[in-house]
Design brief:
The protein has 850 residues and is of the alpha/beta class. The protein has a 9-stranded mixed β-sheet with strand order 17-16-18-19-38-37-36-32-33. Strands 25-24-21-27-29-30 form a 6-stranded mixed β-sheet, sandwiched between helices. Helix 9 (410-424) packs antiparallel against helix 10 (453-460). It is elongated. 42% of the residues are buried.
Length: 850
């Protein structure tokens, strides 16, 4: 019992005193006493403890890979039993979880999360936020208990909200299984340093198991080991001579129940002489030869589609020499902003017919890094262009996907891509749009952009998925019929289709031959990957159409891909007439001295200098365009050379005697982020926790007196930057730790003003979902016990558990009692009947009789 306004209880002694002082008030009458008591309790806001109305049973369903099949065989029976045994006021709520939590009221088709994680703690915390006050809430966890994250921290939240966690652990029948339980290597070493590799293999029985250790794709060790009491340990040594990042993988070859836990991998970062990563379309490339002759280490890449973020490790600068954006892996391009701005790397783009806007870099992830902008401007357009967009609107396009923090359909993203195309075209350009399933549906006939841009964008933004497949030939044919009507000199078609569901090729070869003879081109954006069933068909369309082919598994990138393709086709990116050039004082910021520039270059990519960037060379034509520009981006640096340094458009610049000195000077400026002596950085991955230690010598103490080092990390390929707090261990030694999710990438850097000490990428290289960590299972049992729960064997018994007691308002009941007592007292007073005297007589007669 409790009172909201207990001060009103002071009326009770006052009323008793008044009744004694003035008997005429008749406060000694029982009904009047009870009426006054009800009134005082009502004023005091009396609350009493009563059982909750009903129970909300929240059933937490583990949809992770290791539990899904176990749960599938029991789920229907479990819910039938729970439903048949619940009370009238009881409710059942489904909660599905794996890497994310999904609620029953979310209108989705099945569970949409990734089964590689089993985040029990997240499921519990998220559900606690949804429980309803005033009702008993009880959790029932249906899982195999192998959480991929610690669960011990949720007990306090369960206790605070008075929620019990019951469990029903799903157990698989005993099967033979072996798994790699641990792989330990140093995270960061010096080149030439020997190091120890330690691996641990566990199993359900003792026998010999064969294993392999791979470095990258090559097997470097192979052998057999016998398990004793279910455990075997492997110890090997290795040495790496070249800087960079190397993946080691310990893999066992066993005929067992689960193959997903038969491997574990680890990345080793090797420090050494920094190298320049050169992406080039030329063989041989004079830029490469120049750098090597200057003693600069160069790693040359001519097939850039296989590059990934780990290829940036040990790299001081990246040079992109006339390689189109669609020929570079998306994950590598996505990694460059973090590499430059946070890790202090250098980026240089060189001009050519496949660079800058002509190479599709407009609106890409590295566009903001460059000191020049590639926006469309009327004064440097080619002949007007006629475009036709053929969009897949088949049933698969209705699926919802995450994009920019929201969930939208693939169709919405394709519509947004078509709208971006219209936004980027000029008023003299024209556009037609068709949505295709089993036939081609005209959304826009070939229409001049003119003043109708907003109206056209509105129309293409309303296309909806209508089911069926996509008949590609019908789309191509209808799009070509419209393009033939166009008066513009350049005609281009963009086909967007699902790489796994592109049907009815028809006579597409003859159609594309006709288009090519007429000077029209076709590019393809394939949603999916190159290994999908219809990928080769889409590749052939792009090849015969003389265009480009893009494959992308992330629908969120569709608008950017449409924008890149539009800019590539619709803008005059490369001016191939010789142009005079002149230097500016800006070059002295790089070289500290002047340069004797050549009189002209063969041509250049037209762009505009960004605010805060510096131009070192400008064109002598009417555009005064920046031909050599640079700036600082975060702790890194970026530069752009808008004319060709290789290939047939570089004759004039290559005959210039300062060619080699110019390239060397620019590269060395980009490489300026060298780690000074007296600073050191160590990283060590222990389980899923990365330990980071930064040390500095005593001579740096005064320099760092007013500057605390910042540690910045980025997770995944696109690397949202987060700052990690340091712990000062002792003067000159800072330490920090970061927890990694299962198979999660992490990159980072320690920043001291303009100095950056990069590290990574580092990965928690195990499929934690299949690790069979008994500790996690024990944690689940322990949390359940501490919350007051138990393992539920008889499901119907969950409803008979103790209900929560809640404080309830009884104002209505008190008011009712007050009125009843008051009316009865008035009635008896009117009848001159005294219940008090009557009760006194009854009591005294009873006492006398005894």
């Amino acid at each position: 019992m409790t009172f909201l306004q207990p001060q009103w209880l002071l009326l009770l002694p006052l009323l008793a005193l008044a009744g004694w002082r003035w008997p005429v008030l008749r406060f000694h009458e029982p009904l009047r006493v009870l009426a006054l008591l009800m009134l005082v309790l009502l004023l005091a806001g009396m609350r009493i403890q009563l059982p909750a109305d009903g129970m909300d049973l929240w059933v937490l369903l583990d949809r992770s890979d290791s539990a899904r099949s176990l749960l599938a065989s029991e789920e229907e029976e479990i819910f039938d039993l729970l439903e048949s045994s619940r009370g009238r006021d009881d409710r059942i709520n489904r909660v599905e979880f794996a890497d994310v939590v999904q609620w029953e009221d979310e209108n989705t088709e099945g569970f949409s999360g990734d089964g590689k994680q089993s985040r029990i703690a997240l499921a519990v915390k998220s559900t606690l936020a949804r429980i309803q006050e005033g009702r008993t809430a009880r959790f029932l966890l249906l899982s195999d208990g192998y959480s991929t994250e610690p669960v011990d921290r949720v007990i306090e939240e369960l206790r605070t909200k008075n929620v019990v966690l019951d469990t029903r652990i799903l157990i698989e029948g005993v099967k033979t299984d072996f798994w790699v339980s641990d792989l330990e290597l140093p995270t960061r070493i010096q080149s030439g340093e020997s190091f120890l590799l330690t691996g641990q293999i566990r199993g359900t029985k003792d026998q010999e198991v064969s294993y392999e250790v791979l470095r990258g794709d090559s097997v470097v060790f192979r052998g057999q080991v016998r398990l004793s009491k279910g455990v075997a340990t492997i110890r090997l040594t290795d040495r790496l001579l070249r800087s960079g990042s190397y993946q080691y993988r310990l893999r066992i070859n066993a005929d067992d129940a689960v193959g997903e836990n038969n491997y574990r991998y680890h990345w080793v970062e090797v420090e050494g002489t920094p190298q320049v990563l050169l992406l080039t379309s030329f063989s041989p490339d004079p830029v490469e030869e120049t750098l090597r002759s200057a003693g600069i280490q160069v790693r040359t890449i001519r097939q850039a589609l296989d590059l990934d973020m780990e290829d940036l490790s040990g790299v001081s600068a990246v040079v992109i020499n006339n390689v189109a954006a669609h020929m570079v892996s998306t994950s590598f391009l996505d990694a460059l902003p973090f590499y430059v701005q946070t890790q202090g790397g250098g980026l240089l783009m060189l001009g050519g017919r496949h660079s800058f806007g002509a190479g599709g870099y407009f609106s890409s992830k590295i566009d903001p890094l460059l000191p020049v902008s590639m926006e469309l401007r009327k004064e440097h357009r080619q002949l007007a262009v006629a475009m036709s967009i053929i969009m897949d609107r088949s049933g698969s396009m209705a699926a919802a996907v995450p994009a920019g923090g929201r969930r939208v359909s693939k169709m919405d993203l394709a519509n947004e891509g078509a709208a971006r195309t219209i936004q980027l075209l000029g008023e003299m350009d024209s556009i037609s749009v068709f949505a295709v399933d089993s036939t081609a549906h005209e959304i826009l006939p070939q229409s001049m952009i003119g003043k109708k841009r907003d109206r056209l964008i509105h129309r293409v933004s309303r296309v909806q998925s209508m089911g069926g497949g996509i008949f590609v030939y019908e789309g191509l044919r209808q799009g070509w019929e419209e393009l033939k009507k166009a008066e513009q000199g350049q005609r281009h078609m963009i086909l967007f289709s699902d790489a796994a569901d592109s049907e009815q090729p028809g006579e597409y070869i003859a159609l594309l031959d006709e288009m090519s003879e007429a000077g029209a081109t076709v590019s393809v954006i394939g949603l999916g990957q190159e290994t999908d069933a219809d990928a080769d068909f889409l590749k052939d369309i792009a090849k015969r159409g003389g265009g480009r082919i893009f494959f992308n598994q992330n629908p969120g990138d569709l608008p950017a891909l449409f924008a890149q393709e539009t800019v590539t086709v619709a803008r005059s990116a490369f001016l191939d007439d010789p142009v005079a050039i002149s230097g500016t004082p800006g070059w002295r910021q790089i070289a500290g001295g002047s340069m004797s520039w050549p009189e002209s270059v063969d041509g250049y990519n037209l762009s505009y200098l960004r605010p805060d960037a510096t131009a070192a060379v400008i064109s002598g034509d009417e555009y005064d365009a920046p031909l050599v520009a640079f700036w600082n981006r975060g702790t890194g640096r970026s530069a752009a050379v808008s004319f060709s340094l290789s290939g047939k458009e570089s004759g004039m610049i290559r005959s210039w005697e300062g060619y080699g000195d110019f390239i060397q000077t620019l590269i060395r400026w980009l490489q300026a982020n060298e780690i000074p002596t007296g600073l050191s950085l160590q990283t060590n991955l222990m389980g899923n926790v990365l330990q980071i230690d930064f040390r500095h010598s005593e001579e740096w103490s005064s320099k760092l007196a007013d500057m605390v080092p910042r540690i910045l990390v980025g997770r995944g390929e696109q690397a949202t930057v987060e700052e990690v707090p340091w712990e000062l261990m002792r003067p000159g030694h800072y330490s920090a730790s970061v927890t990694l999710g299962p198979e999660e990438w992490l990159r980072g850097a320690v920043n001291l003003g303009e100095i950056s000490l990069p590290f990574g990428p580092i990965i928690n290289g195990a499929n934690a979902e299949w690790s069979r960590d008994r500790l996690r299972q024990q944690e689940v049992y322990e949390i359940s016990r501490k919350s007051g729960g138990r393992e539920i064997l008889d499901l119907s018994s969950v409803w008979s558990e103790k209900r929560n007691v809640v404080l309830r308002h009884i104002d209505r009941e008190l008011m009712g009692c007050f009125l009843i007592f008051m009316l009865l007292d008035a009635l008896f007073t009117r009848l001159d009947v005294s219940p008090g005297r009557y009760l006194w007589r009854v009591v005294t007669d009873y006492v006398k009789s005894r």
